[in-house]
């Protein structure tokens, strides 16, 4: 039976849509934990086989999701807690027990508010690579240092280039140990907007996520591991219609290329980009 | 019979929703013309009575709408044509046969892309008031000059003040002959987004447009006439669900405060804000 | 004997130039204290008489200067210390033992980096007036609340209006108890750039500070007290030539309208604007 | 005899400083022409030998300078004339009689106004590479098309990487025929600020221009030709002191890292970046 493929960048939601349909998926393992005090739910989705990948519409890999409903509140202390939790997960994913050279990429269009998450986060980052290279570790007063570099590549309409081309070129030239890519995502449900953070080692795939892999930001294509940090900041307009009607034909062609986002998105992006850059600053300090 | 009040800032669309229902509205007069060569449709909606205002959900006044589908193309020459047409309508509305002092207000939040239309347009404006006041008309080499001033007041979450309070204060202090307010609007239909320009002398009404008039930007409240220039750049998320389903109960509370906008909104706002400021620059040259 | 009037917005420096000349000034009282641990020097200059004002080229009033050389370091903890010290002085100047309604004005041009201090600081401010007016003090969970509003008026080339006209209008309409104006200043010496914060109750005077007072932001003109917070971020180009040569004729007319500023001014402004807004957030919490 | 090395990025000025000293330079050829009607002076400085390069403090190559004093006026028609003249020179330098793939690099810090010239110019550019690659030349309705891509790499304090590393990586990956780099320059004299445009094929050299060439953007290092477009928007603070006093010791260490720029630099950068991007849009249409 054909299904309308609702667009979501969250593995969590891809799985939920199967649960709704009462379908079980082989090759996908789930693990959940809930921190009641801080109201943070952590879900680990492991897509283990190509079969699981096909079913989920997402490549093989680990997807870690933090759901923290209070992220939408302007509570600085709470954001700090989430940064610390995120930092712990990042340390483990990045392997920071050893010195690492990390290239942080701020994906998205800095001129479109809900897409500016990555560029804004890179703005707040503690950049150290040039200091260490010029003055040595001593300049930072530490015996173990990570080298942090950052780039905001822009989007194809601004550059005429695939993001992959830009990042691949910079990786080949500067040889980081790992790439961290920060990106605004599309969710299926508005209730997850700006309250959910996804970490993944499965790479970033422009377009559908399955099929043409040539321009994907993956370990295979880049030659170094990639950790993606994403926050859903928009929902595809077509998706909310489909969810309300269950009817593909109800989706007007005018909705093509349209997205849904909250009205206070500017403050939200400012806060979330800061929460993410703080997590990286803690993890790579 | 109760109707779900779909949100639209376009008088044109408020009227259409009645046509769909087969309802005739007393106190509302319509006039249409179509320029085939340039594919610009001009519709003049006159809300003449309080009865018409109540039915339409819009205050008494004239609403002039230019529908120009090709506005979404990056065709500079076409945008210039629209600027000229708009300038003609503005000259007539502003009464530029006499010297006028005009305060242009860029409404909206410059940090949220689809809401930045007004602030961007004021950025491109030829500001002359201070030059004429300091050096006389001669400084501009003309015998007849209009005095143009501009302000970007910000939104209430940024200022803690009603926009009306800010503009009223500045009007009382600087005594312009007329206020022009540029604003991003909400449309009912995505097909009108970024292709339609509405001129109106009915003022600007935060919130519903009927009811509490205390903070409305109207001739009555400001003490000087106001001309509003608006372009729909978003659609309320609830509206597209209602339009697809015809069912109020299909609208999830999560959609509250959410809007729909196209992905290329940054370029669109850049072009449209320029088209509007050019129209004002021509009209007030 | 005629003196070349070097431009400085710092009362501290105006006084120093007399010391250099070995001249004593009647009507001007000085008081200094130094916090060795934190390396912050506080100087209080009281211009008590019109004679003192004429000599100093600054209006009668109190000028409090914090010199904190380490402000140019990216040391967050130190900036926080300065914010707290500043907050203490502001509380006393604003009289926060009683509930106050405070309009904070971010002067300057947000598009010119060293002039963006005021606009940036207002961006980071906790704005509360609209919340308290709509939902009452309870909404903030406190029995004593200050009402904070904010405005970024822009500069005359952008608005065609005097800053005074805009602020006077808004003050008359919204009736705050006090105005706080944040502004980037010109220093005489590059050694004070971005390391010095001046608080003053003497108002803000476009141009020379003496002579035409019509457009000054003063208690007399606005009808409410004004506290100015300023940080020198530029030095007039003519001044550094005069200081190097002692010769007015060495100043090329090409230097007219030119200023001197450091290359890392963007990070500096980001940090300092945050330090100032934090001071206000603490003082008005 | 030792000379104080005044900093200038303009070959024109490097040469003048010799003329002042009455020194003739072997290996440097000069050619001048003047368009009286439009008041544009074009000077071609050819540094032909390493001896000439050493004397001038600039690498071997051709430096073409357009001096157009009226560039500081807000005269759109005049700016258009300069764009056309610049386009003619660019066509010849880029060899546009054949189809070319051109990567345009906007150097500098977009957050510091006088340094934002390059980033702003890339913003206004007609980017075509992705369209042609996806839809073919037909999509642009032309038989001969140039492929235009663009990148704003940021500065080392933001990225932790040398600009060379970023551009070299992207060039290796996307293989353009030629790189065009737009950059804000330092002049020796304030009279040239924002009125002079320099085109050069000699590459871009961070720091002094002689010595360490490892991170220079040159044909040799990049593997493809590079055309640099520069406009002086600042003067080193030390330079204006030296010029006023002729005395190195008059330069205070506080002036280190300080620059001089005009107060209306935001409007100036907006106009000039547009003039340059228009020249490229014409040349590559």
Note down, in words, how this protein is organized:
Four copies of one chain form a homotetramer. Chain A is α/β, with parallel strands linked by helices. Chain A has one domain (11-283): 3-Layer(aba) Sandwich (Rossmann fold). Chain A has ten helices and nine strands. In chain A, strands 1, 2, 3, 4, 5, 6, 7, 8 and 9 form a nine-stranded mixed β-sheet that branches. In chain A, β1 and β2 (40-47) form a beta hairpin. At the A-D interface, α5, β5, α6 and α7 of A face α5, β5, α6 and α7 of D. β9 (258-262) of chain C pairs antiparallel with β9 of chain D, so a sheet runs across the interface.
Question: Which structural traits does this protein have?
Answer:
285 residues; alpha/beta; Rossmann fold; nine-stranded mixed beta sheet; 9 strands; 35% helix; 23% strand
Concise account of the structure shown:
Chain A is α/β, with parallel strands linked by helices.
What is the H/E order of chain A? HEEHEHEHHEHHEEHEHEH
Low-confidence stretches of chain A: none
Strand content of chain A: 15-25%
Quaternary state reads: homotetramer
Number of domains of chain A: 1
**Secondary structure category of chain A:** alpha/beta
Give the overall shape of chain A, derived from the CA principal axes: globular
Number of contiguous helices of chain A: 10
Largest sheet of chain A: 9 strands, mixed
CATH class of chain A: Alpha Beta
Topology:
The structure is a homotetramer of 285-residue chains.
Chain A: H1 11-21, E1 28-35, E2 40-47, H2 50-56, E3 61-67, H3 76-94, E4 101-106, H4 117-123, H5 129-135, E5 147-151, H6 156-159, H7 163-174, E6 178-187, E7 196-200, H8 219-222, E8 226-236, H9 237-245, E9 258-262, H10 265-283
Parallel strand pairs in A: 4-5, 4-6, 6-8
Antiparallel strand pairs in A: 1-2, 2-3, 3-7, 7-8, 8-9
Helix pairs in contact in A: 3-10, 4-10
């Amino acid at each position: 039976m054909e299904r309308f493929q609702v667009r979501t960048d969250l593995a969590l939601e891809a799985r939920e849509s199967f649960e709704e349909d009462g379908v079980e998926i082989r090759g996908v393992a789930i693990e959940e934990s809930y921190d009641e005090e801080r109201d943070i739910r952590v879900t680990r989705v492991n897509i283990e086989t190509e079969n699981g990948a096909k079913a989920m519409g997402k490549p093989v890999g680990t997807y870690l999701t933090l759901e923290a409903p209070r992220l939408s509140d302007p509570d600085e202390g709470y954001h700090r807690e989430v940064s610390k939790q995120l930092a712990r997960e990042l340390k483990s994913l990045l392997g920071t027990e050893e010195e690492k050279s990390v290239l942080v990429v701020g994906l998205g269009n800095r001129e479109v508010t809900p897409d500016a998450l990555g560029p804004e986060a890179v703005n707040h980052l503690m950049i150290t690579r040039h200091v260490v290279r010029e003055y040595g570790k001593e300049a930072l007063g530490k015996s173990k240092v990570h080298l942090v570099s950052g780039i905001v590549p822009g989007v194809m309409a601004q550059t005429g280039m695939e993001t992959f081309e830009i990042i691949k070129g910079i990786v080949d030239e500067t040889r980081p140990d790992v790439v961290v890519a920060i990106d605004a995502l599309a969710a299926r449900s508005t209730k997850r907007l700006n309250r959910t953070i996804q970490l993944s080692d499965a790479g970033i795939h422009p377009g559908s996520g399955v099929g043409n892999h040539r321009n994907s930001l993956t370990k295979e294509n880049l030659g170094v591991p990639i950790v993606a940090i994403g926050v859903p900041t928009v929902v595809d307009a077509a998706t909310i219609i489909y969810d309300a009607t269950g009817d593909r034909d109800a989706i007007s062609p005018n909705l093509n290329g349209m997205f849904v986002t909250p009205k206070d998105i500017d403050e939200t992006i400012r806060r979330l980009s800061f929460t993410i850059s703080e997590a990286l600053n803690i993890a790579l300090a």
